[in-house]
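Progress note, sequence design subtask.
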């Protein structure tokens, strides 16, 4: 990589599916195991209720665990996607061009007509989704890069190897 010319230069506009994939990476956990912690706790409460006995106080634990589990399912699979879609359409995120350029010592991000520069040491987390890559900085800034933005597989390989630790 050289200082004057970026090793990888991408320009893209996110569509709704890519935005949702990046949002899921950023919010529901970067690892598959963390996505299932809260539902497992709810199932544990239900099992504890059956262990205590359904005739006694255990039925309240079963009801509480079932309530939490249903609430989590509604939030994860209906409410959050619906709210995300409304915000995406309302603020027209898909119509704004974004970009990222990788240099030897730093990265330049282009969004909403502004340029932001950060060093590679500021990257806290890097995750790969079905449609996107998610880069999280130490200041909690999240950058979503669609996989379709890469014209060459060599650029995609350089991109992945740059952010993997």
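Output:
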């Amino acid at each position: 990589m050289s200082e004057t010319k970026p090793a990888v230069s991408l320009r893209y506009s996110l569509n709704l599916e890519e935005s949702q994939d990046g949002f899921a990476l950023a919010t529901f956990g970067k690892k598959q195991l963390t996505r299932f912690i809260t539902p497992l706790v709810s199932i544990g409460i239900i099992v504890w209720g059956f262990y205590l006995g359904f005739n006694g106080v255990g039925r309240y634990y079963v009801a509480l665990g079932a309530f939490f589990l249903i609430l989590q399912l509604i939030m994860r699979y209906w409410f959050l996607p619906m709210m995300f879609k409304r915000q995406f359409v309302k603020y027209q995120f898909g119509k704004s061009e974004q970009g990222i350029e990788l240099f030897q010592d730093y990265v330049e991000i282009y969004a909403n007509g502004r340029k932001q520069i950060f060093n590679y040491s500021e990257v806290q987390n890097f995750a790969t989704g079905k449609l996107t890559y998610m880069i999280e900085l130490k200041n909690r800034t999240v950058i979503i890069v669609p996989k379709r933005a890469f014209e060459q597989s060599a650029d995609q390989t350089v991109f992945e190897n740059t952010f993997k630790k």
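The mean pLDDT is 89. Work on this subtask will continue into the next period as scheduled.
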